[in-house]
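The step that takes the researchers longest sounds almost clerical: writing a folded protein down as plain text. The outcome of that step, for a single protein, is printed below.
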Amino acid sequence: MNLHKKVITGFSLILLLIMVLPMTSCKKNISVAGTFWAGVDSDGDYYIYRFFVGGRLGYTSPNGTYSGSSDTWTQTDTAIIMSVNGGYAIREGTINGNQMQGSAWNAVGHHWTWTAIKQGNL
């Protein structure tokens, strides 16, 4: 391969990288604020999660429907954290499109996993 072909090949590779890398490294982070999600946890319990604008969490569990000031959520990029009953139970997870999943634990040491699918807007 002569020098001229090496330069053109190298230049083509650089152009390709400049065009492709931004498309592969830019993830669209969509807030869950104003949406509700539902799913079953590893204990077989069905939950509905309501993500109110401002960080308040509402949820329905087998024991009832709750939405107190001590029920909160935070999101950083694709990471989600839900805290219920003032931190009695914590759910941490990752959002991937219309699905989120993660692990959870409570103050008495119980651990479980959970998955939820986006249902729509509040």
In short: The chain is about 20% helix and 50% strand.
